[in-house]
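User: Please predict the structure of the protein below. I'd like the answer in structure-token form so I can feed it into my own downstream comparison script.

Assistant: Understood. Taking the following sequence of 513 residues as input:
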Amino acid sequence: MRLFRTIKDRIFITLSFTIVVISLIVYFYFVYHLQIRVFGFFDSVNQTINTMLVSNIRGYVYNQDKKNMKLFLDSIESEYLKNILILDVKGRVIAQKNSHYLEEDKYKNFEILRSLKNQSIKTKIDYKILTTFEFLDVTLGYLVIEGDIKKYQEVLKEETRSLMLFVLIVVTIMLFVSYFISIAISKPVVLMVSTLQSIKENEQLHFDRFFEEEFIFLARSIEEKHNALISLYENLEKEVAYKTKELQELNDTLEIKIEESVKDIQLKDHLIQEQTRFVEMGKMLSMIAHQWRQPLAAISTSVLGIQIKIGLQLYNLEDPKKQKDFLEYLENKLTSIHNYVQALSKTIDTFRNYFRNEQEMNEIVISEPIENALYLLEALIDKYDIEIDKKFESQKKIFILKNEFIQVVMNIITNANDALIENNIEHKKIQIHTYDTDNSVTVKICDNGGGVAKDIIGKIFDPYFSTKNEKNGTGMGLYMAKMIIGKHHNASINVFSKNKKTYFTIKFSDKSV
């Protein structure tokens, strides 16, 4: 608003508003007390008349001298009185100053006044006092004083008008005073602002001298602060230039340092992953031996059978029927040997593929790498008689690093196997469930190995954290699983324990599906 644009206007408006508010408060305060004072005077006059009448008319009432009652009432003159009435014990009018009632008429407010505690009505619109004439505790009659409220209102209006005029005069004077005060206060401030606006950049500040001590102090303070800021600005420019040079040098080398750090971290992660795979390779060798044991034994048995027949000459090649039987026997044995050799070759291929480094993701159904992991762990599962409950419902194809996901599943199942053995679970069981939602593929693996304690379940994905002894555990298996699922597949892996069971949930979101 234009009125509040200058400091002078703001000071003047503020002072004026304050003066008006205070004046209104003072005005209403004095009006209130004026009403009390005027009504108090009005009441005092009528109470005095009432007291005088009671003491002077008592004899007339006692003697029922209506003529003297009337003469005495007529002799009372007061502008504050409206009427004076004398009533008998039943409230009927005996005598009155102004002839508003007929003689023997009952006073209409008699019962109301007599029922009130102080037997009076005193308001800003009505005024009546009822006083009892008594003799030896016997009621002789009643005196009623009716005050003229109009007179009270006239006096109050006149007094209020005078008060209002006085307040308006005071407010007008105070407004003039506030205007000159606003000028006196704003003038040096405006001068200061004008000087500050006209000063050039990096120019020393100097104010004209003021007469008021406070503004002299303020001007000196502003000069000192401004000149100090100029000096500080010059020093800061030099410091900023120096720091900018240092920062530029740091920026030149920072990118190289970041690249070196990233390479170091990637190398460490790769070494950890390779170290974990080598540890697993040792376990795999024992599994390969177990996988080979049965085919090799079967091959050995078949070869031994052929050697026995040949060595003992348990055949007759001259007899066509026996020659045919012998050839069929050899063919069956050779077929069996061939199948066993194929089984050995499959085992070698499976393990070789598992330890092959992958560079590209494969689009496959999630149950395929899970089946591969179970095949690799077949020896472990058979050895400890673990029941595998598979429920493969997922049919979506997703892009994954197959061998890395096999490693994750194997880590979870081998950890479950260790828990089943450690807790001496009689009926060992691992459940694997896969299913699809609108935007995800989920794998749930559950074991009944006794669950995980609450105080350590939040740490099982930490590197080098293990509940096994140093000989059996490195603490890197589940850490690698977390890294493979999170970093390499943009998916999530979580664990929780309930009813002495451990649940691992792997969820591939719509970003990875």
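That's the full token string. The chain is about 60% helix and 15% strand.
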